[in-house]
UniProtKB/TrEMBL annotation:
Subcellular location: Cell membrane
Domain of life (superkingdom): Bacteria
Protein name: Major facilitator superfamily (MFS) profile domain-containing protein
Transmembrane regions listed in the UniProt entry: 20-45, 57-79, 91-110, 116-140, 161-180, 192-211, 247-266, 286-307, 314-331, 386-415, 427-448, 475-493
Cross-referenced InterPro entries: MFS, MFS_dom, MFS_trans_sf, Sugar_transporter_CS
Membrane topology of this protein: Multi-pass membrane protein
Keyword set includes Transport: yes
Keyword Nucleotidyltransferase: no
Length: 501
């Protein structure tokens, strides 16, 4: 077979191929933006849609609602994956785009808890579930669509552009939040300005819809359909066939499960850790994460390209192993860089204003404590040196993300035949990312909170804390999940897959 053919169908011309990549990536980027704007505004949302009397419980409830969108992603993968294998890739992910956009815009219109009470969190949860269903159908369609237009020997490179969209979508969500926040007073942003990033989604979705509407169907799917080789029951063929289901499980436990927790640790948990464990200023954490994401995004394409040359397996497993070995020292160092108790205080720059205490430190960091009833809220603004050191540590985590995520689309596409590809690849991807990965911020934050509370209680009773470094307890979740995935992948994954159509 000619190297520029794909399963017997001539690969798309370069001009057409880049249009396919661009249109698919734009739509997927918007979906990721929509999905992650909720997580990026989690701290603000927790004060709007949940009872305000317990800030910790409200924040954990917000994270649980955020995680709910991930949990339903596999159901979206099954529903839309089936449609994609029956009616086509193009029309299916046009529907998911519209569903995501409408749900996101609606979240920006839901009245707050003080206006409609418990109806507010219920409505937000329902809309979040719709977002999860939409994303469950989007990714598999976009990845399959691009892969089926690509040359087999460049499939990792071509599909890696789709892989950049998740990180770029997160970056844009942070950028839109910061621009919106800087364009108005803090009071206005807290009152209504936080809704703007949700509402902006409607404009982005309309533009992407009209771009996607003019795209052609995948050449491989068109060929299979013209020859009568599409599946009439993709769900049964994908999961009822023992041979194919074996590959579904292998894809999940040997790759996407580990990839999912590394993706969310390196980006979302890093953000949550800095804001809620280290108490770093909201705007500064967004700048830190944004800087690291911007610096690391190009490596998705690099590792996708590298996987075309040395195989998907070694690139992905190397990323998992590096993360397993270095997460704890990385996060411990991030904590130390933000811990004002170990910094040299500048006594002459300490001042108190009512219920606000402010201190400055010799490395340029400042800290503020605000008393609110019996609780005290701490905010740290790190100095320039600590800022770049933390950004570097997050960048290293983003590199791990690019290693495991850059090749994953091509890896999954190549595991399954055309007739059931959309369905078969979507489920392990969204279980690995949506459940194992999506639950990570909530689970890790809970483990840290539990360890800190246990230490406080034990110190009051006996003076001995059971956890030496409670701020690191949340990392056991991604380390153990990635460790299991690494072992399974090392033992059972092959570096070459058979279904290379």
């Amino acid at each position: 077979m000619d190297e520029n053919s794909v399963g017997g169908v001539a690969a798309s011309s370069k001009k057409t191929l880049w249009k396919v990549i661009g249109a698919s990536s734009l739509g997927t980027l918007i979906e990721w933006y929509d999905f992650y704007i909720f997580g990026s505004l989690a701290i603000v949302i927790s004060t709007k849609f949940f009872p305000p009397d317990n800030p910790t419980a409200a924040f954990l409830s917000t994270l649980a609602t955020f995680a709910a969108g991930f949990v339903v992603r596999p159901f979206g993968a099954l529903f839309f994956g089936r449609l994609g294998d029956i009616i086509g890739r193009k029309y299916t992910f046009m529907v998911t785009l519209l569903l995501m956009g409408l749900s996101t815009c609606a979240i920006g219109l839901v009245p707050g808890y003080q206006t409609i009470g418990f109806v507010a969190p219920v409505l937000v949860l329902v809309l979040r579930l719709l977002q999860g269903l939409a994303l469950g159908g989007e990714y598999g369609g976009a990845a399959t669509y691009v892969a089926e237009h690509s040359e087999p020997h460049k499939r990792g490179f071509r599909t890696s552009w789709i892989q950049t969209t998740a990180t770029v979508g997160l970056f844009i969500s942070l950028a839109v939040i910061m621009l919106t926040k800087s364009s108005m007073s803090a009071e206005s942003f807290d009152d209504w300005g936080w809704r703007v990033p949700f509402l902006i989604s409607s404009v982005m979705v309309v533009v992407s819809y009209f771009i996607r509407r003019n795209m052609d169907e995948s050449p491989l799917f068109k060929k299979a359909k013209s020859e009568g080789k599409t599946s009439s029951n993709p769900l049964k063929e994908s999961f009822g066939n023992k041979y194919n289901f074996k590959f579904v499980l292998l894809a999940l436990f040997g790759a996407t499960m580990g990839q999912g927790v590394i993706w969310y640790t390196g980006q979302f948990y890093a953000l949550s850790f800095l804001q809620n464990v280290c108490h770093v200023d909201f705007d500064q954490t967004n700048f830190i994460i944004g800087t690291a994401l911007l610096a690391g995004t190009g490596f998705f394409v690099f590792f996708g390209w590298l996987s075309d040359r040395i195989g998907r397996k070694p690139v992905m497993l190397a990323g998992m192993l590096l993360a397993i070995l270095t997460y704890r020292p990385i996060y411990d160092r991030m904590y130390q860089l933000t811990d004002v108790t170990v910094k040299q205080e500048l006594v002459d720059q300490q001042r108190t204003e009512g219920n606000i205490l402010m201190k400055a430190y010799d490395d340029g960091s400042t800290a503020t404590w605000v008393s609110e009833g019996e609780s005290v809220k701490q905010t740290v603004h790190v100095g320039k040196g600590a800022f770049f050191s933390i950004a570097l540590l997050v960048f290293i985590q983003v590199l791990y993300v690019t290693m495991v995520y850059g090749p994953i689309a091509a890896f999954l596409v190549e595991m399954f035949p055309v007739r059931i590809r959309y369905t078969s690849m979507s489920l392990p991807y969204h279980v690995g990312n949506g459940i194992f990965g999506g639950l990570l911020p909530a689970v890790a934050t809970y483990l840290v909170t539990k360890a800190q509370m246990a230490n406080t209680a034990a110190q009051q009773i006996s003076g001995n804390a059971p956890y030496e470094k409670p701020h690191l307890e949340g990392l056991w979740y991604p380390i153990l999940i990635a460790g299991v995935s690494f072992v399974i992948g090392l033992l059972y994954l092959k570096n070459k897959n058979q279904n290379v159509q």
